[in-house]
Amino acid sequence: MKLLITGACGFVGSALAECLLERVEGLSVTGVDNLMRPGAEINRGRIERLGVNFFHGDLRSSSDVSALPACDWVIDAAANPSVLAGLAGGASSRQLFEHNLAAFGNVLEYCRQHQAGLLLLSSSRIYSIPALAAIPLRVRNNAYTIERAGPFPAGLSTEGIGVGFSTASPLSLYGATKLASEIMALEYGAAFHFPVWITRCGVLAGAGQFGTASQGIFAFWINAHLRRRPIRYIGFGGAGFQTRDAFHPRDLAALLIAQMRTARADGQRTYTAGGGAANSMSLAQLTAWCDERFGPYSPAADPEPRPYDIPWVVMDNTAAAADFRWTIETPLPAILEGIAQHACNHPDWLEVSHA
Ligand SMILES: NC(=O)c1ccc[n+]([C@@H]2O[C@H](COP(=O)([O-])OP(=O)(O)OC[C@H]3O[C@@H](n4cnc5c(N)ncnc54)[C@H](O)[C@@H]3O)[C@@H](O)[C@H]2O)c1
């Protein structure tokens, strides 16, 4: 089987290349990346040593995409993944549009031309911010948790957020590029008869992730705590109760393998996947974990809200578990320990990440 990974030098793309080459016999992987993410260059040598056939190319350029060899499947892991992209953080709204949406049009054309199946990595950010902000929550052990008494809006259960949850705008500019990509992917798949699987991922985290305050929060927080750099509990009263679930790309890889091996052409194509409630943690809990690991260090409180911030995200894995027998294998403490060891071994990681 021949696989193309876009964004192959990013955190998720490079980790997926490694896991899939380990697990899928006879797999050959082509990777493409424009190396725009600070730090991505580091992964270029790493994936080439693993045997990935790497192309330095920009997906916004149709001639770069048409130079890529034919493959059976594409994992689309290229994007500007910051929820603040287009508003802050050095990327204009036009750049966000071009990298996340216009470039994706070239990926879809590639799939049409080569009849390649598509695995799109979408995001929990495709959900409505007002609807997410309205989820009934309470505080338990310094973390937001869902108020179990309900009643719940469509798509929400005690297991978390599922595919039926509201996608009404506003979502964030980033989230909108992802939702638009989902719609275009399904339409291309139906019109041109290639398989499409969409996975709406919760936070992905692990050693080697490029972390900034607006993206890759677990890696950013652990590296910043270790080095006593300024960290802030932003919004929500400055208490740090905002909570996310997290999962490792190697668990995502298992789901993508199951999707590629599934022959069915009809039925559900879009799934939610994340760490689930067992792999969720608030910033305050993450600080407590870091205090144990590196000694005490206190974040500042900054109650001023930040655009697009939401208090709680936990993805519902029920459908992915039922349809693909998929479960999370990597517990959150193992993910955190992996990041901590990597942070200890890479004293310049925040500079590498341009945090
Ligand atoms: N990390 C997460 O928590 C998370 C959660 C949900 C979804 N996702 C999705 O997973 C994917 C990968 O995220 P990540 O965390 O690895 O981000 P990342 O920034 O580490 O990797 C993205 C890679 O894409 C490359 N890229 C961007 N625009 C490109 C273009 N026009 N042409 C070629 N390469 C380009 C970048 O150079 C980078 O190496 C993204 O699509 C993101 O939306 C990530």
Low-confidence stretches: none
Which radius of gyration do the C-alpha atoms yield?
Answer: 19 Å
- What is the residue-averaged pLDDT? 96
Strand content: 15-25%
Which of globular, elongated, flat, extended, rod-shaped describes the shape? globular
Amino- and carboxy-terminal Cα gap: 37 Å
Output the strand order for the largest sheet: 3-2-1-4-5-10-14
Structural class: alpha/beta
Helix run count:
12
Order of helices and strands: EHEHEHEHEHEEEEHEEHEEHEEHEEHHH
Distinct ligands: nicotinamide-adenine-dinucleotide
| Quantity of strands, as a count | 17
Biggest sheet layout: 7 strands, parallel
Helix content: 25-40%
Q: What topology does this entry show?
A:
Blueprint (H helix, E strand, L loop, with lengths): L1 E5 L4 H13 L4 E6 L6 H10 L3 E4 L5 H5 L6 E4 L16 H22 L2 E7 L5 H5 L3 E4 L2 E4 L9 E2 L2 E2 L11 H20 L3 E6 L1 E2 L12 H10 L5 E3 L8 E5 L1 H12 L9 E4 L6 E3 H12 L5 E3 L9 E2 L4 H7 L7 H14 L3 H4 L3
Parallel strand pairs: 1-2, 1-4, 2-3, 4-5, 5-10, 10-14, 11-13, 12-16, 13-17
Antiparallel strand pairs: 6-7, 8-9, 13-15
Helix pairs in contact: 1-2, 1-8, 4-6, 7-9, 7-11
The protein binds nicotinamide-adenine-dinucleotide.
